[in-house]
Amino acid sequence: MQPDRDAAPRRFDEAAALQPLEERLTFISALWHAKQGDKILPSRSDLDPAEFHRLWPVTFLLERDPTEDDWHVRFAGAAYGSVYGREITGARVRDLIPKSLAPQVLGDLRACADARQPIVSQSETNWPDRGNVYRYQRVLLPFGRENGEVTHLLGVAAFYNSAGATVF
Question: At the N or C end, where does the chain have fewer CB atoms within 10 A?
Fold first, then answer.
């Protein structure tokens, strides 16, 4: 499957109705909904990595830093080391992404936190300093406090090459 370029982020239920999603995105979203239950949001403590261990290579966990209006990478699977060319755990999101991609990436994070719902985005990413071009489809899942404040975002992605074959 090859995602459309630069599609706006959509709530998961809207995106799933419009196009087929990678099985891993459907799986992790169903797990999020099960953890949510009757709550506004599932909490970070509801997140059990053993339940989605096969997705670790394409998973990341971000923690919100409200003092800087930024996010810190708390976990990044091996695929992200390949995409970024280095280990990114512990880094600030603003320090990782090229300035040309910052509005899109930060906008997706903000949209998920504001909606307090899973969102799906798909686009093409070009890392000029490395020459890599990836198309991706990604789901962002918010976790937070009982009052609805989002403290963490869990992301799971599928990466494709220019021919549409799954890379990660």
Answer: N
